[in-house]
Design goal:
The chain is of the alpha/beta class. It has three domains: 324 residues, Alpha-Beta Barrel (TIM Barrel), CATH 3.20.20; 40 residues, no CATH class; 115 residues, 2-Layer Sandwich (Nonspecific Lipid-transfer Protein, Chain A). The chain is 43% helix and 16% strand. It is built from 21 helices and 18 strands.
């Protein structure tokens, strides 16, 4: 098993004039120590506009600085957002290759799509298509690092003529590719594309085993068609970490930072209302932590085996790898038994002190790491035996690098022309040729497909509760909404589920309007009235249901704030978005 460290560069308020300078300099010192102690990778995220949660908007600069004061530790982009609104795929390929060269081939290229409204809206990235944008950009980036010259692309989101994207990386064919995963669906997607899975969902070891087994089964199957030109079969799991010989001291040093990490993440991705430059996430965390799953009172020193997530007396909390060396050793063994390849420790969280981070890195390296490092070769040998020649077979299913038509050239007078509308922001086309036409047609096709849904979303956003209830909340309106659910049902996303999902919708006058969606594995059918035996019951106001259907209300936010109640099979609730063709789920 490999052990790595991860940075968001968290900086809770209040700040002083030197806060960010001190933050980065201390992080570089921590990376220098981790390199000397034998940690495997430093993973650095790239986020934008997420005050207090992540002041890491230039991961390439930070990793380049680390490359010059370290010798062995690998340098992981964890992750670079790939939808072209964030940055052109050519810039991603150039950045990764340059860092690979100056670091003597130590880059790990983690990728993702991101899902915070702050970033998506800030860069004009469409939420509904961001995964498709990531997938297209990922393959383009891989080609750019291999093809010499890059043969060009006329895609749905990226359009670029042939160019030689330089420099090329030192690692051949390119650095290992990864994707950030917060749900099991993305773990499957990683396996299907033959890339590493970076899990940031703080999953328990026993649950991780289910994910790992499915991941490697897919890697070994015909479903694996690599996005790149090499298969990177690895599963990494991130955990908050703090270790000390005294358990109570480990908790005192690390738990508030770990909880702030989780709370700030939820603030930007789930329930927060943020005023840029005004909101204090740290102050809100102190006031609300117990109400949203980060109870401090139930984390106690009892020498018990570590549970990554804790539930006690109706309160939820996060523990992670915070405890003594013996407790961490037992937890790591469980992840090792689950087949996890790498644990990524999140130490720089909240207001955790620099000196405590340094001491924890040293203690873990001295007391815990050696046992697992000694079994690393054994772990890798077992993985090779498990996969056999599956990676080679997978690469045979992948299209080879493309080549440029003989005689292609460009002159000094060529330029790209601006494209009106969405096509210009999604994929700036090059001048002339069929590429512009295909991009324009794709834009028109997407507009036609989503026109009705966009009209609903626009109506919901500008309407009050009373208007929503009288229009879309009418019997005819609800019939149309549930008919849309029937059409959008994706059988393969149901994971074998059959049964009834009951919606109890509370009108302003207190009356309950019940609808039932029956799923039989191949289709979904909606009807009015309750179910005699619902597998899942969802209760909420009629206006909130309309806002949910119009994507003006986040389901997790509604659940955490008491606007939505669930009863029954929570696993079904977690898959609802996927089952009915939505971009996100509970």
């Amino acid at each position: 098993m490999r052990f790595s460290i991860f940075y968001e560069h968290q900086l809770p308020q209040p700040w002083d004039a030197d806060s960010e300078h001190r933050l980065l300099k201390e992080a570089i010192e921590q990376v220098r120590l981790a390199d000397r102690l034998g940690y495997d990778t430093v993973w650095e995220v790239e986020h934008h506009f997420l005050e207090e949660y992540s002041h890491s908007s230039a991961s390439d600069v930070f990793l380049a600085a680390c490359s010059q004061i370290t010798k062995d530790i690998r340098l992981g982009f964890g992750i670079l957002p790939l939808p072209p609104g964030y940055q052109h795929p050519a810039r991603v390929a150039e950045t990764a290759a340059t860092l690979d060269l100056v670091s003597d081939g130590r880059v790990e290229l983690g990728t993702g799509e991101t899902s915070s409204g702050a970033e998506l809206a800030g860069f004009g990235v469409d939420r509904d298509t961001k995964r498709a944008q990531w997938a297209e950009a990922l393959e383009v980036v891989a080609r750019m690092m291999v093809e010499q010259p890059f043969a060009g692309i006329d895609g749905r989101y990226v359009s670029m003529p042939p160019r030689n994207v330089i420099p090329k990386p030192l690692q051949k064919p390119h650095p290992p590719l990864w994707v950030a995963c917060s749900r099991r669906e993305t773990i499957r997607l990683a396996a299907e594309k033959g890339i590493g899975a970076l899990s940031f969902s703080f999953v328990e070891p026993e649950e991780a085993k289910v994910w790992v087994d499915e991941y490697y089964d897919i890697i070994a199957s015909d479903r694996c068609v690599p996005a790149g030109f090499a298969v990177n079969a690895n599963v990494a799991v991130a955990l908050p970490m703090m270790v000390h010989a005294d358990e109570a001291e480990a908790i005192e040093r690390g738990i508030d930072g770990a909880h702030f990490f989780g709370y700030a993440l939820a603030h930007y991705y789930v329930f927060g209302e943020h005023q840029p430059g005004r909101t204090s996430v740290w102050q809100e965390f102190l006031e609300r932590r117990e109400d949203v799953g980060f109870a401090r009172s139930i984390i106690t020193a009892d020498q018990a085996p570590l549970g990554v997530k804790v539930l006690q007396q109706g309160l939820g909390s996060l523990r992670g790898a915070i405890g003594t060396p013996d407790q961490l050793r037992e937890l790591v063994r469980r992840y090792e038994d689950a087949g996890v390849d790498e644990l990524i420790f999140v130490l720089q969280t909240g207001k955790t002190e620099h000196q405590h981070i340094m001491e924890a890195l040293e203690l873990f390296a001295a007391d815990v790491m050696p046992e697992f490092a000694a079994r690393r070769d054994e772990h890798e040998a077992a993985k090779r035996e498990r996969l056999g020649n599956a990676p080679l077979r997978a690469l045979e299913r992948r299209a080879p690098p493309q080549t440029v038509e003989p005689g292609y050239s460009f002159g000094p007078g060529e330029s790209g022309e601006p494209e009106a509308g969405a096509a210009a922001t999604a994929a700036p086309p090059h001048a002339g040729g069929p590429g512009r036409a295909r991009v324009a047609l794709a834009s028109l096709r997407r507009a036609a497909e989503t026109r009705g849904e966009q009209a609903l979303q626009a109506f919901v956003k500008r309407s009050g509760d009373r208007r929503l209830e009288k229009t879309i909340g009418s019997r005819a309106g609800l019939k149309a909404v549930f008919a849309g659910m029937e059409r959008q049902f994706v059988p393969e996303r149901a994971a074998g589920f059959t049964g009834d999902i009951q919606y109890d919708l509370r009108a302003a006058d207190g009356a309950i309007r019940s609808w039932t969606v029956s799923v039989d594995g191949d289709a979904a059918k909606a009807r009015t009235g309750p179910s005699p035996d619902p597998k899942l019951k969802i209760t909420m106001s009629l206006s909130d249901f309309v806002r949910l259907a119009g994507r003006d209300l986040d389901p997790v936010k509604a659940l955490l704030t008491g606007r939505l109640d669930l009863a029954g099979d929570f696993a079904v609730a977690a898959r609802l978005g996927e089952m009915f063709g939505q971009p996100s789920a509970f």
